[in-house]
Amino acid sequence: MKSDIRVCSAWRDQHDRPRYSLSETCPDCGAPTENSAPAPFDPEDPYGEYRRALKRRNR
């Protein structure tokens, strides 16, 4: 699922708190925005393959 809410990539330097927007650029400072949602999984997860296989098997 893709998040539409984005956060200013330079908010730590430019603003006192995170600035959220739906556009590709920050409306206050013009910096590019980035996806505010965390990754759905950790790509470095050593047991992810086994967890997904177990989930498929238990359906």
From TrEMBL:
Family the entry assigns: Belongs to the NOP10 family.
Pfam families referenced in this protein's UniProt entry, alphabetically: Nop10p
Gene Ontology MF terms in the entry: snoRNA binding
Cited SUPFAM superfamilies: Nop10-like SnoRNP
Name of the molecule in the record: Ribosome biogenesis protein Nop10
Any single GO CC term annotated in Swiss-Prot or TrEMBL for this entry: ribonucleoprotein complex
Functional description taken from the UniProt entry: Involved in ribosome biogenesis; more specifically in 18S rRNA pseudouridylation and in cleavage of pre-rRNA.
Entry keyword set: Ribonucleoprotein, Ribosome biogenesis, rRNA processing
Record-linked Gene3D superfamilies: H/ACA ribonucleoprotein complex, subunit Nop10
NCBIfam families from the UniProt entry: PRK13130.1
GO biological process, one term: pseudouridine synthesis
Location of region: Disordered: 28-59
